[in-house]
Structure formats: C-alpha cells, structure tokens
Amino acid sequence: MKTLRKVKIEGFKSIESAELKLGDLNVVVGANGSGKSNLIGAFRLLERVLSHNLQLYVASEPDRFLFHGRKRTPALSLDFALEQNSYGFKLKAEQDTLIFEYERVEYSGYWSYGEPIAAGHKESKLEEAAASYKNKIPKFVFPKVRNLVVYHFHDTSDTSPAKQTVDVDDNRFFRPNAANLPAYLYWLQEKHPVQFRHIEEHIRLVAPFFDSFVLAPSKLNEKKIKLEWRQKGSEAYFDAYSLSDGTLRFICLATLLLQPNPPALILLDEPELGLHPFAIRILAEMLEAASKRVQVLLATQSVTLLNNFAPQDVIVADNHGLKTTFNQLDEEKLKGWLDEFSIGELWEKNVLGGRP
C-alpha cells in the first residue's frame, strides 16, 4: 500500500542532506538527539505549508529550521515522491521568515512534466493550482500529499484534547491529536460495528479491567459527547479522566490503526511512550497489520517495539555531533548476528549504530 516512494530533505534542522526510500512499514530508531524526530518534523512542516500556516509556524525564527542556521544554510528543501508524481518546495531565509524560492509538482509516466507552480510567495499555492483546470497534475497531487498525516497522542494531562467534551458530529476523520476521540468512536460504534468491536477487544488485551465504551450524546446537550466507559465488575461512573496515561494513549492508537478508512500515510513519533511492554507488543501487531492497508512511518527508541519488526523495515538514525544520517538495514549483512540476537539487542550493542 505504498503511497510515498521517497522523501528527500536538504538543510532541515539536523539533516544536512538525506534521501530515504520508503516501504510499507518504516521504523526509524535512534538515540535521544539523533535527529529521528526531525524526519517526522519534515512532515509537520509539510502540513503547515499545505494548511497555509507556514508564517505562523516559522514565527520569526527561521534559523531553528535551517541546518546550523542561515549563515551555514540559507535555504531548505523538501521533495516527496509519490507513485508517478512528486511535490517539492524550497524555502529561503529572508529577513525574519522563510519564503518560497519555488514550489513545484512533477509527473513522470507516459510523458514527463515539471515546472514551478509559483515563486517568491509566503504561503503555498498548491491548493490554488489544484483548483485550476489549467493543469491536472496539482489537482491530483494535492489530496495525495494532504493525506500524509502526523499523529501525536502524548498529551494526557487534564487539558488533553482526548479528554474533552466535543461536538458529536465531529467525525469526518480522526484528528491528529485525538481531539474528536469520543465523537469518532461513537461514529464507529453506529456505522462500523466490526471495527469498533476490534478496538474494544484490543483495549481489553492491554487493560483487562476495561469492559466497554458507553458512548451516546449528552442528555443535557445532544450536540455534545464525551468519552465514557464501563469497568468490569463495577457500577461506578468512569470517563477519560479515570484512565491512566498509557491506557488513554493506547485507546487513541487503537482507534487510529484499526479504523476502516485510515489516511494514506500514518506518521508517529515514539508511539510507545507510557505503554507496558505487553501493550507495546500489541501495538507492534497493530502497526504491522495497518501497514498492509496503508503506509506507516514511525520514530522510536524502544527496544521492545524494535524487536517485533524485520530488518528491512528498520532505518537507523545517527548523529555524531554535526548532522543526522539515516541508514537502512541490510538483512544479508546481519545474517550471522540475527541467528543469535534480536534487532533490539543488536541496536543496544551498537552493532546497528544509532546509539550514544
């Protein structure tokens, strides 16, 4: 189900230059500060660009996006190669912001096409070009790159988006920060009962006390809904504030990975955070299953999670103090080692690199 064939990054944060070929499942492993999260960060920048929030995202601090600052690197570029199309842009530092040196789409198939959409602008022109009938390539490319979504469920505080009362009709897609979790689960319960049941079954595997969700619009305001659930053997009232951090994160991950219509590319940064080792194993199974339907890219530093994947799925992020490099594992070269050690053990022993 590969949507994105290759990503090329130049001059972005700790990444001076990198070109990665991507498969269906891509697991980036590295130590703290290795720059693995900056790979996910490149996709966050893409999201801000496509949602016309580049200037707000840069917030008068362009140097934090550029490899060792603008004196060393005056511009950064990202290129995303799809099946027969690609989208890319180059951003240059100008005064206290970043502006487009160019933004372009390309097609390579029965014939080739490639030219800039625009240059010198402050916000993306791709959506505008897609709305025009002058050229069909942007029209095809825009929804493809818009469907590369970074998910982040680390916030489990009392103000966490996943814990809030939300609009019951906010269910068109699962939001990247789980801000519509109860509404989306209610929609699955009513319209996709098989997938909803699978989500509950997976939650019970890692949280045996969990019996089921209790999802319905509020009796006091039928336009609102909150996450409520039932505990086995108890008649007490439980909502999202009664869940542990790890359990709430797992509910979000299960909803994301087991939903009927996930995005084309799911991106996750350290999804194992706060999970029990057994829950991490179940997470690995869900990630593997999801990669049969959609493309998955995740960054991790969990040995337990890493042990569940094949060498060809693993990309090692390394940083020796100057820049981040990415190395995709070669199973043939590791054959002797893999007879006696797991992938996680080899990473711990620094056989794969990517360790302090």
Automatic annotation (TrEMBL):
One of its GO terms (molecular function) is ATP hydrolysis activity. InterPro entries: ATPase_AAA_core, P-loop_NTPase, RecF-like. Pfam families: AAA_21 (PF13304). One of its GO terms (biological process) is DNA synthesis involved in DNA repair. Residues 25-307 form the ATPase AAA-type core domain. Signal peptide: none annotated. This is Predicted ATPase. It comes from Solimonas aquatica. The lineage of its organism: Bacteria, Pseudomonadati, Pseudomonadota, Gammaproteobacteria, Nevskiales.
